[in-house]
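Limitations
The structure tokens in this dataset are predictions for the assembled complex, not deposited experimental models. Users should treat interface geometry with appropriate caution, especially where small molecules or nucleic acid strands are included. An illustrative entry is reproduced here so readers can see what is and is not provided.
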Amino acid sequence: MEKYPMEALIMDYWDENTSPDNKKKIEKQLLEAGYSKEELLNLKAFYSSLDDVQIPEPRDRMTESFYKMLTSEQPSTRGKTAPTQRLLTWWQQAEKRLVPKLGYAFALVILGWALGTWVTPDVRYKNRISEMTGEITEMKEMVMLNLLKQSSPSERMKALNFVDDWNEVDTEVVRALMQTLNYDPNVNVRLVTVVTLARFTANPAVREGLIRSINRQQSPLVQLALADLMVSLHESESVPQFQRLLEKKDLNYEVRDRINEVIRML
Amino acid sequence: MLSDVELMLRVHEGQTDKLALLFERYNKPLFSYFYRYCGRQDVSEDLVQNVFYRILKYRKDYNGSGKFTTWMYKIAHNLAIDYYRKHGRYLYHDVDRLVDEYEDMADKALIKKEEIRLLQQALDQLKPHEREVLILSKYQELTYKEIGSILNSPEGTIKARVFRAIRSLKEIYGVLER
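Predicted assembly:
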């Protein structure tokens, strides 16, 4: 059996979970061993002061490198490193986490609406339900816009999942999504924003915003996602933006190759 | 929500995309571990990446017994040791930058700038094995039992090591303060 060192007892003495009775016993042993109460108190205070030493946050490049590694190591995608595949992988992960929760919420709203229509077929009630549906949509929009302003990337990701249930977006939502696409500090949030906006490209403001965003992106993953989107939209208006992007000396070489290819395709 | 063990077992079975969820949970704690260990942002980010690469590479070795974090920190510990052997000595933190960053985050009037600077310098001068037990217990908030599993030592020995590390750190701090 392990011999319990005297110093280990000090850690038990400091431990918040040690009972008062045990603490008294340990204190007695420590005083007998020559430790002074003052010395132990000073050391404990010093140990607590270590909390003051702060460190920086990891940069986005760490997350980008991880997802790049994960995509290239996945058996199903090995050899297929198309940018859309990478984007899709990320999206699938986010979707699996968030969609079920939103699905329940959406199902409840629909159930409420259907029950209301069935139980009260009167026109007045139908009008009221229509008003309520409008109010719910407004509330969801308000929640989404608020979530988008949160400091946590996962909260902002939830906001983007809200939009997934909508068939159309108004000017305010488009403006908020464009703001996120262009200025959000988290590359994953920006990536999912590309996917979200891709559903509304029938809206000319969205299309134009996406084209304008090409030159504002610093992350190779987002640049590639936008390049793939422009190809799928056959958007030749984006060519001048891609040409400007090619002028950047620090452009990632993989992105450079892909953009040259995209320009040829468009 | 799936537990760490459930997620890792799925990675083990070939659902490697589940590793992304483990990355989201643990990239920051691991970065903190490495950064406090070597003091370099770029190196710490690369080492975090290496941990997840090794998890993926050795996923078949994971059998679900024991906590996932213990296994993960064992990998991190081995990488930190390799890094130390390769570079021979620790690279020191950019203390001025750390202090500046901290000042940005809180009320300047409350910050004991000099104390934090000395504390970081003292941590840099601590012996590697002493620094590691302090990082694992104080900053990673692992239990002594978990640290014991990572470092292959009994719980009591780990507690004693943590105490000795605190005492050494206080001594170094005292010398720097003079």
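Some entries come with short summary sentences. For this one: Chain B has a mean pLDDT of 85.
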